[in-house]
Specification:
Length: about 110
């Protein structure tokens, strides 16, 4: 889950609380252009498109540095890759939990004509 924190010295701060099952419980702290990058990836972007957007937003970041950050974010489970597109995984709200193995209910079954 993402949480905006108070800016520090005029720099944006974003906390990402990772509480997923099977992952270590941790909080990632992003600052500066990394905050904007993760937000821009909510809608999914290719790496070149993300670089153009960040540059357009006034962030002077070399393409190689952005590429390294994306790979690190992917390794930490903050983004995933779908073809050429990267998408951020954290959400702004706590997701609803669904029973991982619900017992079948009679109303869940439907006869298939055959």
């Amino acid at each position: 889950m993402m949480e905006e924190a108070e800016p520090e010295d005029g720099v944006d701060v974003l906390l990402v609380h990772d509480r997923r099952h099977g992952w270590p419980r941790r909080t990632h702290r992003l600052t500066g252009w990394q905050v904007q990058a993760l937000r821009r990836l909510e809608d999914g972007r290719t790496e070149p498109a993300l670089h153009r957007l960040l540059t357009g937003d006034g962030h002077d970041i070399p393409a190689e540095e952005l590429s390294g950050w994306i790979q690190q974010a992917q390794a930490m489970g903050l983004v995933f890759r779908d073809g050429r597109t990267y998408v951020s995984l954290p959400t702004w709200d706590v997701p609803d939990r669904i029973d991982p193995d619900p017992a079948p209910q009679s109303t869940d079954r439907q006869e298939v004509p055959g």
